[in-house]
Prior knowledge:
The protein has helices spanning about 1-5, 15-20, 25-35, 50-60, 70-85, 85-95, 110-115.
Amino acid sequence: MSFLKKKKFNKTTIFQNLKTIYGVGTNSAYLICQHVGINPITIFKLLREDQIYKLYLYIEKEYTLIENNLKFYEKENNKYLFKVKNLRAIRNRLGLPVRGQRTHTNAKTKIKLKIK
């Protein structure tokens, strides 16, 4: 809950603010609002302290892999895949398309930019 208190929510609605958290998408943001009992289009500044606390508690309890924990998990997973010589990890390191896309005529941008 500490990172949520430090995070600045400056968007207008609760739905938009929840989507700014890394690991919480559109569907998850809607489900969080529904479970806590808050209308997703409510303006964030109009929430009471108890509602904000309830929101923080639910996110902390149900969504363990968000923000830094999720980034660390993904990083460790990529390290593991590269360690066991997985083709997906090798192509990712080389900057090539990973999921079986065509490379003969497409994927020039990915190869040029070396997006990882």
